[in-house]
Amino acid sequence: MVVLNLFRLEGIILPGIFYRVIIGAVQLYIKRRERVYDSNTTFREIENEWITMSDGCKLAAKIWLPEGADEKTVPAVLEYIPYRKRDFKAIRDSKIHRYFAQKGYAAIRVDLRGSGDSNGVLEDEYLPQELNDGIEIIEWIASQPWCTGNVGMIGISWGGFNALQIAAKDTPHLKAIITVSSSDDRYADDVHYMGGCLLTDNLSWASTMFSYNSLPPDPAIVGDKWKEMWLDRLEGSGLWLKKWLQHQRRDEYWKHASVAENYEAISCPVFAVSGWADGYSNTVFRLMENLQVPRKALVGGWGHKYPNFGGEGIGIDFLREATRWWDRWLKKIDNGVDKEPMLRLWMQDSVSPLISSCPGRWIAENNWPSANIENQEFLLSKGRIHLEEDEIKNEDMRIRSPLSVGLFAGKWYSYSESTDLPHDQSEEDGGALVFDTPELEEDIEIVGSPEVELELESDQPIAMIALRLNDVCREGTSTRVTYGLLNLTHRDGNENPAVLEVGNTYRICIKMNYVAQNFPAGNKIRLSISTSYWPFAWPSPEPAALTIKSKGKLILPVRPKSKEDDKLPDLGEPILSEPIRSTLLEPAKREWTVQHNLATNEVKQQIINNDAFLRLEDINLEIRKETTEVYSYLNNNYDTVRGEVESTRSLARGNWKIKTLTRTVLTSTPTHFQIRAILDAYEGDTRIFSKSWDDLILRDMI
What we know:
The protein is of the alpha+beta class and about 700 residues long. Among the domains are: about 1-30, no CATH class; about 375-560, Galactose-binding domain-like (Jelly Rolls, Sandwich), CATH 2.60.120; about 580-700. The chain has twelve helices and 37 strands. The strands form seven sheets. Strands 1, 29, 30, 31, 32, 33, 34, 35, 36 and 37 form a ten-stranded antiparallel sheet that branches. The longest helix has 18 residues, at about 15-35.
């Protein structure tokens, strides 16, 4: 058996005194790494406030009010998400929203209907009810005696999505938003599908919400009705993975709440933020191009995180930047934010794929698209990217990749952990067609979305193609810079796919994700093409071979270096507010392991993603989350691909102890997807709820 462990261990189990020493050292290390905002400004923290909707449903809010808000009104900032303000996000929330309160803003964190301590049942993402509730929440905030009537929204991922979506509604008191790691197109650029290919993060994310939705509210907040509310959620939330797999093309289900359908509906200023290691960077550029309101963009070297949690050498003082945005649009202070360059982007330097750092420098563009960027075309021939005009021989190149291409791809929306970033791409290129430039004689810097134009044939009616653009150093390691996927039945769009006619030649164009990257002199630029990318994306129904013609094109958005970039102001180091009190009982554990059993020819990718086991001291609550994901196949057989996610969550206070176990398995045949799932809930040692699912869903050219 061959085992590759792609991680730096963050959780080590040791007995007795050694264990306590490790815990203490981890706590001290974390404390020293985080710079805490030092302010003498006080604030008042309201642990729970009920906001009653027009239909009588009560939503739970936590509020931080700045000093003096009872005498002099202040603007407000809302974050509106399903991730449980009282427990699992309590520490993170305190580091952010206390800061805003110290800067003179009322900060409000609201649990969505059916999540956390709020009433109701959460049945899916971004439903009309959620958006209507959001509008009512903003109107409630604006009417409070401590509020000026000016409200902003901030959020990452889900909260970034609904901030954009609510900004596209008629919400007069919403004066500005900050949307982090979100999408304007719920089908084309979210965790579910990419280029018409099914992402396995669709399974991972569905399982995350399956687990979250299984938890009860806190009896200390809702009282004796907590168990009735819990049972309603367990029975009513449903299996979201099934819903998402029932919509395999861009139909009305995905168009709903996709602001790309009408950018003009957004009438308030927008600050859009993402990171190059995240899956959501593309949206930032489309928003800058299509919005007609004051707007600003920031894309850095971090992953799926607020930039102030980006880590040493990667993060910035994002809360300061956020406050400057609020000052301009909520306090009407003319601080020049709206006169700064539209985009601040982290130009990434060449770096080994074996480390998780992201060296580089900041650049800026005043507008997008930028006149500073020129698309340069490079022809492709067998094994080569031609930097200059050459005589190219016409040759057909055939590729049918093994399922192993993709095992080292990392996560679609990486958190920039050492475990979830793409590994050395040399591991992937043995199963791909590879095209290299000669060693570069001078640096080439790109900013934008690289494209590839190809003429190809397929021996199957349904096939996919995966492209990777890599930076190859002289030592031979290969770092993935950006990538693109396309289900070839979606070659003319995501709404009306059409099968391929075997033997026909098709000319296709594939856009890769936006990126800012420096390829230094002496390195090579590599384009890799494969017909599978498992387990990053679900494979085609049958193995397909593609025949690719010579004289394809690689189109790079080349940007010359600018001395103006050297004059940009420093964005600072991450600073957070003092968090609520907690005790670390067991550190987080992250592992990412690839196993190839040479005896059985079974290949597995196993991901362990356990959060820190904590006690929240102010409410005497212990919280725990453990998740394992396994993706596998046998003998390179497409019928054997399998994804499985198992999560356990628990809450405990004194004699009150609850635990939920969720498990989801996704497999497929050439014609169907099959979902098997279970949900078990325990009060103490007694199982009080159990439900299982076994569903077949027809594959729709995917």
